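Checklist before submission:
- one chain only
- standard amino acids only
- sequence pasted in full

Submission:
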Amino acid sequence: MKNERIANRARVYDFLKSIGIEPDELDGLELPVTVDVMKERVDFLHTLGLTIEDINNYPLVLGCSVKKNMIPVLDYLGKLGVRRSTLTDFLRRYPQVLHASVVVDLAPVVKYLEGMDIKPNDIPRVLEKYPEVLGYKLEGTMSTSVAYLVGIGVARREIGGVLTRYPEILGMRVGRVIKPFVDYLESLGIPTLAVARLIETRPHILGFGLDEKVKPNVNSLKQFGVKETSISSVIAQYPEIIGLDLGSRLLKQQTFLNSIIDFTHEDFGKIIEKMPQIVSLSNTAVIKHVDFLRSCGFELDQVKKMVIGCPQLLALNMDIMKLNFDYFQSKMGRELDELVDFPAFFTYGLESTIRPRHRMVSKKGLKCSLAWLLNCSDVKFEERMNYDTIDMEEMEDDSLFDMNSLMEPRNDESESDFDEDSDEEYL
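Returned file contents:
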């Protein structure tokens, strides 16, 4: 009997070798006693999109019975809503799922995810995005990472959305990954609660390698003229900046901008501080906006001053800029120099702010700067309309990002925390 088992296993090994599968790791694993059954398993794995290379990457999958293991797992995933088109990648990333017991291993994890307020229609998207989560123990990394995030101020009601958008958090070690990341941002001057808000809206930033990306990028910002005291503001405005290949991108953007407008090193740093998204702005957009400002009658030196004062000029909706400028020219009776002094004029809504305020000031016969007219809240402007004189010292400074605005709680809700819609076939 023993000799027969040895002979059967040898025949199965010969078959696997003949199709390119190395059976060395299968010693001690319970395998089919006949070549026909093993061929059935290999063929079934092929129907799932797995190649010989995939099987060699995890040969233990050959120990799974088609009827007892694979089909029950696949049926369960299908009932959850996992799409057929994602299945191959799902199994390549986490082939161990085919060993799992639906009742003992998979269902408890799904129940846990539901308990984290992940919406039922988002569960399959979470599994597709991060299938490895099905292998985690409930009392381990998953629970500690969530508890830590809540502890630093991530709103409990936001946890479902955070995990839906970036389920990889469930596999992150608090002590090795999450806490060092949070501590570093705090050391740069971002308050803990502000870090929590950033994680609520952009949880993927936790995946930016601290030593590989984040710290080198902070150094790059300093090298390109961003003041150390402004680093926190830059990151708060544009968190993605710490995950980019930033050094080369900054050099490329600086070189390009200098080819159009001769900025100094200090000028470039100021621009980044006020609009860090400049590092991702296309050349076409920059050229188009500079050409528009030149067509309005501004000299290149004036355009330079305007862009340093309000870099958003290089990224605003062109139609809105044209409407604002047309109104400025035809109705407001002011000199171009006033726009040079207050280029943020182009960032205000014509119908919501510029036109009604201009009419009110004109009606009262007041002479004021564009900054006094626009750079305040509606409530403050109403108060100003009761003044007999204009106090220029009351103008609000909006040149710097207000960190306090980031720490306000979010109140937006949606049916799903996934942005993607799909009509793909389900399992």
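Reviewer check: The first helix runs from residue 2 to 18.
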